[in-house]
Amino acid sequence: MASPIKKTDLHKFAPASELGPAEDYPAGSIEWAERISKRLQIGAKSITQHTVHHLWDTIKAIWAVQPRPWEIWPKEDPFRTPDDYCLAVTGHSWEFLVGIVAEFAGDGDEINVEAMRADLAKAQVEHRKPGRPKKETRAYSTHLRAQGSDSAAKLLRRLARDHPDILAAYERGEFNSVRAAAIAAGIIKRPSLFDQFCKLIAKMSADDRRRGLLLLEEQVEEEKKTAVSKNQLAMFQ
């Protein structure tokens, strides 16, 4: 996927030689956030099968610390949401980092895809005003749709805003999809069998509808006979 923003628009850091390593500062500090972000930018600049593990290590280092870089850095005006941060630092969407995690995360890792997507939803609910998303976020949403997750981001934001307990369960891996979590929260109403039947009838041919009607009539007659038998049996008890 092409970057939603130009590489020339990426956040400008001081040279790495001037900044020094992130490990020289307390994890979670503004100084640490700037330096670990510089490392993330370098790691995402040119990714190959031989270098991607460096990017993975940086993602894990960021995820292991609270507060996370986008919450506190830059000092004057933090990015506040993971997608704004990721786009400005790397030129890629947050979903790009999610893809790295999906490929490399194992059972022993604290970071996982569900937690990353939930973290984004919570940050957006807290810091974004309702309405049309900004250009970079529209690019992110377009990427989700390309992956067949048209409404996943919206559903996660609804969960973050109205059902934080269900969102927490999703983060823990208790649901196998965002849709399943949304159904549990009552955001998505599962169609009843009757609703499904009505939709199916509309698609049937006239011959199939006649056959279906005969089948229903037979079923109704059987139910009537069963009800009569039960009533007669009850009279003699």
Question: How does this model look, in words?
Answer:
The chain has 237 residues and is an all-alpha fold. Among the domains are: 7-116, no CATH class; 193-235. The chain has 13 helices and no strands. The protein has helices at 16-19, 30-45, 52-63, 69-72, 82-90, 94-104, 113-127, 135-146, 152-162, 164-171, 178-185, 193-203, 206-235. Helix 2 packs antiparallel against helix 3 (52-63), helix 6 (94-104) runs antiparallel to helix 7 (113-127) and helix 9 (152-162) packs across helix 10 (164-171). The longest helix has 30 residues, at 206-235. It is elongated.
* Fraction in helix: 55-70%
SSE ordering: HHHHHHHHHHHHH
Structure annotation, total helices: 13
Number of strands: 0
Gyration radius from CA atoms, angstroms: 26 Å
Average per-residue pLDDT, rounded, comes to 83
Structural class: mainly alpha
How much of the residues is beta strand, in percent? under 5%
Question: Unreliable runs, pLDDT <50, ≥5 residues?
Answer: 1-5, 135-150
Which sheet architecture does the biggest sheet show? none
The shape is: elongated
